[in-house]
Request: fold
Amino acid sequence: MRVFWELGWFFKERKKHYILGVMLLMVVAFLGVLPPRIIGFIVDRISQGTLTPDYLLKWLSILAASALAMYVLRYTWRLQIFGSSILLARNLRQQLFRHFTQMSPAFYQKRRVGDLMAHATNDLQAVQQTAGAGVLTLVDSIATGGFVIAAMAITIDWKLTLIVLLPMPLMAYMTNYYGKLMHERFHGAQQAFSELNDKTQESISGMKVIKTFGQEQQDIDDFKNLSERVVNENIRVARVDSLFDPTISAIIGVCYFLTIGFGSYFVTQGDMTIGDLIAFTAYLGLLVWPMLAFGWLFNIVERGRASYDRIRQLLAEPIEIDDRENAIDEDPSGDIVFSLEQFKFTGDDRAALRNIHFTVKQGETLGIVGKTGSGKSAILRLLLREFDDYKGSILFGEYSIDAYKKQRLRRAIGYVPQDHFLFSTSIAGNIAFARPEASLKEVESAASLAHIHEDIQNFTEGYSTVVGERGVSLSGGQKQRISIARALMTEPELLILDDSLSAVDAKTEESILKSLKATRADKTTIITSHRLSAIQHAHQILVMEQGTIKEIGSHEELMTKKGAYYEMYELQQLEALVEQGGEA
Amino acid sequence: MLIKETEKKQELTGREQWIIFKRLLTYLLPHKKMLLLAMGLLILTVLGDVLGPYLIKVFIDNYLTEGNFPTGPIVGLALGYLFIQTSNVIISYFQLLKFQEAALKIIQQLRIDVFAKVHGLGMRYFDKTPAGGIVSRVTNDTEAIKEMFVTVLIGFIQSAFLIVGVYIAMFLLNVRLALLTLILLPILAWIIYLYRKYSSVFYQDLRERLGQLNAKLSESVQGMGMIQAFGQESRLKDEFSAINDGHWQAAKRNIKVDALLLRPAVNLVYTMAIILLLSYFGVSSFSNTIEVGVIYAFVTYIDRFFEPINQVMQRLSIFQQAIVAASRVFLLLDEQEKIPTQLETNAKINEGKIEFRNVSFSYDDQTDVLKNISFTAMPGQTVALVGHTGSGKSSIINLLMRFYEFKKGDIWIDGVSIKDYETAEIRKKLGLVLQDPFLFYGTIASNIRLYDQAITDSAVRKAAEFVQADRFIEELPNKYQQKVTERGSTFSSGQRQLVAFARTIATDPKVLVLDEATANIDTETEMAIQESLERMRLGRTTIAIAHRLSTIQDAELILVLRQGEIVERGTHQQLLQQRGLYHKMYLLQNGIVE
Reply:
């Protein structure tokens, strides 16, 4: 029940709605007591032969009025309580989204998208349930249960009430127990289902391999086995699920039996009338729901608490990268001076970067080469200020990069990542991502610079073509070039190409580099690449190895040095040399 | 290549819904026995449900009101009541379980059918349909149908039986009153009709908005790096907020419809029914004597009558979803894009001579991606395909592997048309190594063997040794039993490539079809791969797509493709001398400027 306390802030915020809702719920519970009692009264009069039309009309009118009133009240409390619960979900969802936008890449590295989605969907759902169905079951089981029992004890017979209610707690206990069991088994069923899902996903992605080896039938058999497991796990669930109704009717059956047995005795003793007895049995029927609700309440609250804990933990994650006080509110511009002693990724013992010192003059191009894991990307990520915890300083113009407002720094940098991520909107929307107000002309000129304009024009819907699952499927090279166009839209002070030309052919690579050079003469560019051709013409080249600078210099300097760069270059040219020899 | 939107918003007419529903019911047929058993049990439980109150009625009218309690009959009644209740509890447990079991089996069959159907579809289908959509058809959509079978359909059958049973009992007790209570049926039907009408619109809307909401959320989380890098946080927040608000409004509308037409409405009708009963008994009591037990029985029956209606109505939205899901599943089951058919003669591939004769091909029946392709690869020879992306290299391989059907020209293997071989023969003798080496969940060994249990452990090892994959496998902690997870992402692309080689070699194909990898592979692995490739090609006819011209200089025949046509052909030396396209590509690749 602690979760109700923890959600107290929300209940306070929606005080009026909850108070109104709970009060109406209680009125409904009270009115619900009327029909059995009225049935009892009328039965008594009929059995005694003393029923008059006036009496009948009076009570039936009361019954009709209460029915109409209940309809209106039930409608209203639902709007108040359930309406509030979905508002809570909406607000929490918005809060989560805002929080997500403030989280640093380090946060996204340790969490999986699926988990974050689960918090924002399943956990949110459970909290919504607590604020809606949770409140309902709590109030209703107490109010309805209380009023019905009171009506039985006060208006009919407290002894009979006591006797008959004895088996009732067992129902709450059993259903709660089944609920737990179900939850466990349901987990197994979901596991099996998710395996089946993975299997299907894999078969479809690997369709060509399966076809190549002619193993369609075997794959179908494998699927059959998995689907069998799904059936078996679900039957395990069904075995518990099918217990609910029979258990309830068994316990109710016992209650009925006790009612009729003892009730008849009391009737013959003259303590009760037959009408009382019939009213009593009707009351019994009304008790089923509060008992069930009580059983559910625990499940709802338990899930809600766990979920709300997870959401709060997520919201409590500190914002790692934030603006300093009095952060500089101007666009960074000028030379980049990178002087770093050491940088470690969180949770890593090994330094990812050591002793990195270099300067990129404004308007120059820096090339960075090295194997995967040599630290190329780490340098770029530090420049983007994805991390703050390093020893050393990185200057952009006059100030250190963390002195600027985050927004200012990021707007000055056009970043083209290795794994080109496009949003599922139009191509124009993707290119104009950083400047949604840009005209189509500007979009087209950025696309031309990235040498993707012609490709886009060949799509039937041109720049309006939608990208992604539901739209056009683009080749890796096309995606890369759209990413480049996107980064060029803001005419950034600093353009970063993180191995972003790997999927375009040599000719296109050359043309893109040429047009970049022409249009960005006074602006800085940093390129990392596996292919040396992409960085060969840079003013300065860093050769990275195991987190440190192995060599630094221009292409010509490095070539004369005959070090790692030279070797790499030679290796890439080796085949060429062999060929040339062969031809000569 | 544009993908047609296959998942358009679907508006099904009532008639279409009915047709889909009937088709779903045909899946019940194979489980007739189990369903009949469950129905038999259901009839028994309904009988028990109806008999219990009747016994109490007898007790009230014959003994209690008379104040007369003869031991024999009373004990008999009590025992009878207890017996009925007990057996009812037991039978209803099995009844509920059997129905669920049947539903699960039905869905399993549907799932297997869909999955098998997917395997029977031509590659063309996979080109135009996103993988996520197909997976959804097999799993999520069938799951929605399962929900419908388990919660709606079974509940509906149970309610229907109970309503019939209750009405029979009421008619036996009092025909006139039973006739009067018949008026409840159209009223309830009307409420259900209204609810279906409005909720189907509102609920569908809510589902769609939820889908949008989750898609936006998931995409934003995945692309957060980009959003932050371009400083678009507040714009995305606003966009999300708008979708979130829309979803909230839709949820509110749903709560209103539910509150108007579900439990509160059914409860209103229930109380009206009680009023009807009481006025009938009250008014008739003015002229006749009324048996109190009958009132009791009617009140109880009416009570029983309403509970299942409440439950079924609450779950009607599930029905709606299931029908939409089923329509998508059936669309897939009716898909005509089949795999190419074979004549299935007994011809065998022994030599591995490959001939393309005037083959033209188009993916969309409009623009030809291959135009009049002819070439011959003699047994043991290597034919290399060279050209830019979109030149038609991959299409040649796609046709040779029978992934797509072609209409013009023919491909001959060992002098027999490729269309005459059994599919199994082609699969056995032609080994394809894909550009993107796909690893399945399992172990290294299971990835080399795939499902072919005839390949022994030592054969697996031999294959790995042959392609020199054993070097890195032996260094793994569990060697050949090393787990492969998440498509082998824990292995480098070079290692994955070697495993894929071993997989092909294990089947010992006559013809090798290679789609050279363009991925970044470090120089060391690259050398191992080149060496292995040379060994694999030895004694096998090889059709290879080459991106690096250096890897194919010893090919007997090099075909240079441009826009679906062979523009140059010859050996490496011949082509260089021609000083044509090949020569230019060669210079470019080697960074030589003339």
